[in-house]
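Moderator note: this is an archived Q&A kept for reference. The question asked for a predicted structure of one protein chain; the sequence and the answer are reproduced below.
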Amino acid sequence: MRQSQLFTKTLKEAPADETAVNAKLLARGGFVYKNSAGVYSYLPLGWRVIEKINKIIREEMNAIGGVEMLMPALVDRKYLEQTDRFKLDVGFDVLGKKDKKAPYALGWTHEEVLTAIASKYISSYKDLPKAIYQIQTKFRNEARAKSGILRGREFLMKDLYSFHVSEEDLFAYYEKVKEAYFNVFKRCGLDTYYALASGGEFTISNTHEFQAFADVGEDTILYCSQCRYAENSEISKLKEGGKCPNCEGNISKSNAIEVGNIFPLGTKYSEAFGLEFQDEEGKKKPVVMGSYGIGVSRLMGTVVEIYHDKNGILWPKEVAPFDAHLIYIPSRDSNVKKAADKLYDLLSPYGGSLVGRQKEGVEVLYDDRADSTAGEKFADADVIGLPMRVVMSERTLEEDSVEVKERDSDSGKIIKLEDVPKCFQNSSAIFQKT
């Protein structure tokens, strides 16, 4: 992608009405645009990050037998009324919350909708287990729409639902989802704690949250760094400085951002919708269910809260919108621009297609702008925060080379042009200290 063709530009200053780090840096870098409180547009760079996260999620959900579908965001009140949830203030109806006769709500969750669908396709133990997920826009009547994309009224979410013959089978799958979630968050660059949380009216036991430690986090987690046991302070009897109930290690406390959660639902929804199966003896039983969520847009915001410095974002490689920022330093020598174009074409034979994979497996944002100074380009590169920077200048061209620098490094290395593709295959070896 040529930066001269990019729809957005970086901002010198963050919008005055943003206070959260993620909101400031994502707005400055041209990743998001705030339409109103708690409602954001994902601009081309931001949408690339979302798609990277979605790809990771899909791979991990598919690996545990999840099958993807898409349900409507517009939910008929008849579904929510069967579980007495239409009256909850958490959602929006389409005409405004004061109209209790509104025929539809904007969905904040889809247990009811999918249970109704499943009742048409599940009737025997032979039909179970099943796991269905979607990645979709959700809506929540959030009174405290703040913290950028960490807490929104409209947000992106992955919700997975599982259907089982027994609680034993449910909790066996629950463990599979737990490991898949750890994989998702690790691939996104996050170290998460699996924290015990409160159950609720629609669960059969305590639930669990995946918490990423961050000063800005609204949750407080009590945890043991030795065995990684953790509990949400809202339900915990643990005390900071006390002993871990698992290993006798010391208990610490931290603010954290909840990036995922899993719920053992039991039969509450299946009983409400008559979702039953016939067992091997011919007896009818309610299907046992589980629900598992990941806040996709919140995950993006969490990454930014954790990976940034005073100059901008430091994207982890797997979720970065591009692998590298190729920067042409304007020169009177036309050969510099020609060499930069040639290198870009080598790495990007599809002409910088926003969705194409490059020949060498590298995705490149090419700052080809001729009217920007080196300082402006480097400042923009810091704000955008791609993992690697490749600089083509008159000085480097004299040596048939480029300067390659990792985003979080203070210095770069001069690399021969012919060796540039190797930088992306084994950057750790190239940048190891000698």
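Archived answer notes: Residues 351-359 have pLDDT under 50 and may be disordered.
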